[in-house]
Amino acid sequence: MPKPEIIGSARSTYTRVVRMVCEEKGIDYGLSECALGAPELLAIHPLGKMPVLRHGDVALFESRAIASYLDRSFPGPQLFPSDPHLAAFTEQWVSLVNTAIDRTLIRTYLYAYIAPKTPDGKPDRAAIDAVMPAVRQQLEILDRAVAVTGYLAGDQFTFADINLLPILDRVRLPPEGADALAAASHLATYYARHAARPSFVRTVPPAAPPGRARLN
Ligand SMILES: N[C@@H](CCC(=O)N[C@@H](CS)C(=O)NCC(=O)O)C(=O)O
After folding, report:
1. How confident is the model at residue 212 (pLDDT cuts 50, 70, 90)?
2. Which fold has domain 84-201?
3. Which terminus, N or C, of the chain has the lesser number of Cβ atoms within 10 Å?
4. What global pTM score does this model have?
């Protein structure tokens, strides 16, 4: 079987998600680094978002679709459970994270640091202050979700956890995010435990290039 090629960036949370799937399953894959909106992305994703996948004749866009394809196509631990209840729990958390939590924690909070719309390019204090109540509220939701088993879906590591961990990794970098994560004690323990997984360690993003806010 040819080697899957993930096209995206090591700095992108969604690219990291599909890389973590490969790492968890022991899939030999390649990462082709590219910029946002690059022609290689637009050739596959109609909106030019990352990541996209090439695998033999297969070309796919959207991280969840790519992850599901990789999970079904390769041996190794099953990351999308087949049990109906567990499968639904997994989908439930993936959906909430992708439709609401990513928007609050990454697109609004983190971007106010790394891509601020301020005239001087400094972090957008007004945007940060405005979004913090929602950041705290959503981290509390996640805190309750992992409190009992230490996983989002049932008592096993699934794609729901993979889909969340790169976001938590970024949100803890600026000070308010770090404080909010520390205050959500079950979630902080969850993050620390799963951040030790080889799939997470082997996909840590490189530091931001010069000229961009350095949060790591
Ligand atoms: N729903 C998409 C989201 C992908 C996404 O938004 N990726 C970001 C990088 S982490 C991106 O391409 N941003 C550029 C843009 O939104 O134009 C997926 O799950 O693959």
Report:
1. low
2. Glutathione S-transferase Yfyf (Class Pi); Chain A, domain 2 (1.20.1050)
3. N
4. 0.96
